[in-house]
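Pipeline run #58 for the internal structure catalog. This entry was flagged by the ingest filter as a single-chain record with no existing model, so it goes straight to prediction. Upstream metadata was stripped on purpose; only the residue string is passed forward. Reviewer on rotation: M.T. Logging verbosity set to normal.
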Amino acid sequence: MRRTAWAAFGAALIVLACGVPTASADSIAYIKDGNVFLSTPDGARQYQVTSGGGYSDVSQADDGTMIALNGVRLHRLARDGAVLANFDTPVSDTRPAPSKTFYGPFDPAISPDGTKVAYTYYYMTQSQSPTCFPPTCVTTINEAGTGYSFADRQTGWDVKGMGYHSGWRHPSWVDNDMTMISNPSHLPNRDVILDRISDGGNGNGNMVLNWTSDMVQGNPHMSGGDITRDKRKMAFQTGENDSTLSVYYVPSFPTSWKDGEPNAGSDPHICYRYSDAPGGAFGVPTWAPDGGRLAWHAGDGIHVASVPSFAGDCTLDGATPAPPLVIPGGREPDWGPADVPPPRTSTGGGNNGGGNTGGQTGGSTKLTVKVLSATRSGGVKVNVKVPGKGKLTATAKLGRKVVGSASKKVAKAGTTSLKVKVSRKGKATLKVTFKPTTGTTQTSTVNVKIR
């Protein structure tokens, strides 16, 4: 890797003032307190997408559809928090160790067109050398890799065009057919390689397309990273325990490989590194759609920096020396071209897993309630769409008199049914309330005619 115009920006040492980048039509998806949020890049307006909790990572496609990690399952989410799909992966094993050997998924990344998901997995097991006798010569096998799935359903690794690539992790999409994967689990290997999905899954023609390593000034590794859409810049977690974040100029993106090695002139140039992150470590960076800004999380939240155009090579002209904190408490940011949704309209009810902060009054939305039947003998039967785990209750009234009630615990997001036994016929109101494990209580009131 060529070293050019290298400089270290230590946040604690910089005294130059730096303003927050201006607002734009794109958005940053992120995690806060176990839920998915969206924010304008300047942090002026946040929108809470979910309220059920349990989320640890999120990624967004160009159309705004999101993939979020909840436990060992992937949720495909609409911008309003609706769970469009809820599925697992071949590594989604909930058994305790050592019963399980696969761990994951982690680091989910949805493709720009929203059709595929790449994720990190780990494989850990023990083996016995054939030349020894138990209990000696026990060897431990630790492996990492990247798996692929359709973005709306569980996808086995034997599905053509999907599969997995063992040895590298932290996937980032270059385009809809290629990922950039990094941080090899075995050495010696290149820090960063490229994986073309149409080559087929591992064992089905998938090739190792080597690219680059960063060993400047003894850098130990390149961990998670991202590349701009024009393929001219990239950024990675670097340093011991991700203690630095490095920005690179790509003079020429690789287009051909001979014996696994990229064409000449494609080796990135390291331009500068950030250091002294609050909390000591940098999160995985993410680029703005136009490639002009970069975001990442640290111990205090999400920071945003402007990055030079690098028209011909590395430069510090236009680089933000002390990136400001834009979204306090946010983690795992992912930048996309879709805008932050408008504030939810007030309905007098609860909140459908979302809301707005940052200077805007959070609106609320009703639960989605569908009355299936309403009779004195059979009770009032409804379907209710809930955003996650919690408790669902319903109360039926004729005027001011309560004529029936019911409750149930809900284990996960989706549509659930509830039956309310009633003592009278007539025109009644049914108030349905959902109290999530974490988040805002939601309510909806519907009119029913009990026959």
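catalog note: The CA atoms of residues 116 and 151 lie 5 Å apart.
catalog note: The domain at 2-336 is CATH 2.120.10.30 (Neuraminidase).
status: ready for reviewer M.T.
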